[in-house]
Structures are given as C-alpha cells and as structure tokens.
Amino acid sequence: MKAVGLTEFGGPEVLHIVELPDPEAGPGQIRIRVHGAAVNPTDTQLRHGERAKRLRDVALPHVPGMEAAGVVDQIGEDVATKVSLGDHVMAIVLPLGPHGAYAERVVVPATSVVRRPEGATDVEAATLPMNGLTARMSLDVLAMEPGQTLAVTGAAGMVGGYVVQLAKVEGLRVLADASSGDVDLVKGLGADVVIARGDGYSERVRTVLPQGVDALVDAALMNESAVGAVRDGGRMVTLRGFDPGDVRGITCRPIFVRNYVGEQAKLNGLRQLAADGLVTLRVARTLPAERAAEAHGLLERGGIRGRLVLEF
Ligand SMILES: NC(=O)c1ccc[n+]([C@@H]2O[C@H](COP(=O)([O-])OP(=O)(O)OC[C@H]3O[C@@H](n4cnc5c(N)ncnc54)[C@H](OP(=O)(O)O)[C@@H]3O)[C@@H](O)[C@H]2O)c1
After folding, report:
1. How buried is residue 193: exposed, middle or buried, by Cβ count under 10 Å (0-12/13-18/19+)?
2. Is the beta carbon of 63 within 6 A of some atom in ligand 1?
3. Is 154 in the pocket of ligand 1 (CB under 6 A)?
4. Ligand 1 pocket check for 40: Cβ under 6 Å
5. Which among 177, 179, 249, 288 has most CB atoms closer than 10 A?
6. What is the CATH number of domain 132-257?
7. pLDDT in tens, 246-284
8. Distance 272 CA to ligand 1 centre (A)
9. CA distance 58 to 187
10. CA 17 to CA 39: how far, in whole Å?
11. Which residue spans of the chain are classified as CATH 3.40.50.720?
12. What is the pLDDT of residues 22-56, one digit of tens each?
C-alpha cells in the first residue's frame, strides 16, 4: 500500500511516498481503508524528531498521522463493535506503533473507531477524532460547573475551536482570544466574549473579569503568559507539558490525548454533536498524499484555519 513516511527527521522535504505491506487486523482491531488523514501540529513534531526517543524501537519508515476517516475493510477476531465492513468510520491513531494515519490502510484498536458523523464526508470526519478528543479531555479534567467562565487561547485553531463549542454545549461562559481577522469565526463558534490575542493577554482578560477566569485551556501554548488570566485557586489545561508549579493555588493539568485512544463512548459523543451541528468540522483544504510535504509547510507557516487533509 501507499503511505507517506520519513526515514530521517527534518523539514517537510523528508516526507515522501513509501510502499508498505498491507497491515492485517489482529484480535480486537479494525483495518480502515483511509480516504482522509488530517495534518496536525503533532505530525510536524514527529517529523522534526521530537518523538525520536519513543520511536527508537519502531521500524523505519516512520509514518505520521493521528486521525483518519475512511471505510472499514477488515475486522479482526474478538471485535465487539457496531461497525461492519464497508461502513464509513473515523478513528484516532497512535503513530508510535507500527505506523500512523498517513497511509492507504491503517489498523487500530476497535475502541478507537466510530462511524463518521451523519452528513459528513470522510475528509470532514478526519478532522474530528484526535482534536475533538483533546478538547473533550480538556473539559473532563477541568470538571467545571455550568455558568463558570472558561478562557480558551488559540480559539481559532482546531483544538481551541472544539473546546469553545463543547464548552458552550456544557453551559459554560467562554472568553476566547482572536486576531482581528478571526473575531467572526470565533464568535460563530459560540464564544461569549472575544478579546485580542497576543501580548498583554492576561491583562486584557482581567479587564473583562478582574478576578480572573475560573479555568483556561491553553491551545495557543502561551504557557507562563496565560497564567495571569486564571483566578486564584482556578484551573488550567496545557497541551505540551507546561506546568507553572505552585502559583496562587492554581491547578495545572498537562494532558495527552494518547490517554483517550480507547474512549470510544466519548468519540461517539463527539460524532453525535457533529451530526447535530453543535461541533463544526472545518477543512481548510485537501491535498493528495503525494503533496504531504507541501501540507506540512503550509501548516508550519501558520494562519491556516480549519485542517489540511491528505487524501488517499
Ligand atoms: N497534548 C495533546 O494531547 C495534544 C493534542 C492535540 C494538540 N496538541 C497541541 O495543541 C496545540 C494546538 O493544536 P491545534 O491543532 O489546535 O493547532 P492549530 O489549529 O494550529 O491552532 C493553534 C492556534 O493558536 C494560534 N496562535 C498561535 N500563537 C498564538 C498566540 N501567541 N496567541 C494566540 N493565538 C496563537 C494559531 O494562530 P496562527 O495560525 O495564526 O499561528 C492557531 O489559530 C498544538 O501545539 C498541538 O501540538 C496537543
């Protein structure tokens, strides 16, 4: 089968088409004929070599990709699942195993797979599993009460956008940041208050809420400079391991979506919200798999709204 892989770490140019044997679904696994694989910041980290330690025992080529959608084309033994051969499904994929989602076929645990949302194409569905579960996990660890205020940085981005939408479903008040060009987008996702992104962020939050927000999801990786937005004793979720330590009684929880790969019920919940129009699947552009390097270059330049999706 065709896949996009790399045999050395580096810039986008290290990505190239590779030929791999078709993977076989083992017990408890499902194989998907991938039609769309989303291109995420984590894929560029893998490509750069930031996961090199964990990939030490994985055979080359490394194949990135943490989410995909397509058609079930093989079901392993002992799979108690509601999907059948030929069903259109989406899945979260861990690229640190045999390979990631940038491939014509990918094998995943059955618990990582659900049907694609009704009304969505495979390309649209490919943008939901990994980023949606990250947003889900963020809100789960924050365990907020309806009416409390959540700040979301990077709200125009994929994780940030899903956090805004899930938070609104749960009755939270959302204070989001945006560049001037993204204000309508972020308001359209449901944010109650939109403030300008960038330098002085925490001070701007405090002009709206002098005591600070109850909690914050830092999808823009602002780290230290977002802590000031959180009230004393509040909570914060970070996405690349940042923890400020003991600051004004704030609880910081770095989260990792790999801990949600088996959360099929939560993925199903996201599927339903997308089908109901409460979560928006945003595709920036599709590119053929052969142009994966171009997709990585575009993502790294910034400014992409919605996800780039590789077609296989
Ligand atoms: N821990 C986990 O399990 C996990 C899971 C998923 C994602 N992540 C990480 O979470 C981060 C967000 O992912 P994503 O997919 O949402 O990325 P994304 O779609 O690129 O969104 C990030 C957003 O933040 C904006 N931004 C960048 N710098 C900013 C700043 N200083 N102030 C305000 N906004 C800023 C970006 O705008 P521009 O495009 O204009 O730069 C973009 O809109 C990534 O670092 C990703 O690796 C972690």
Report:
1. middle
2. no
3. yes
4. yes
5. 177
6. 3.40.50.720
7. 999 999 999 999 999 999 999 999 999 999 999 999 999
8. 25
9. 43
10. 15
11. 132-257
12. 999 999 999 999 999 999 999 999 999 998 998 88
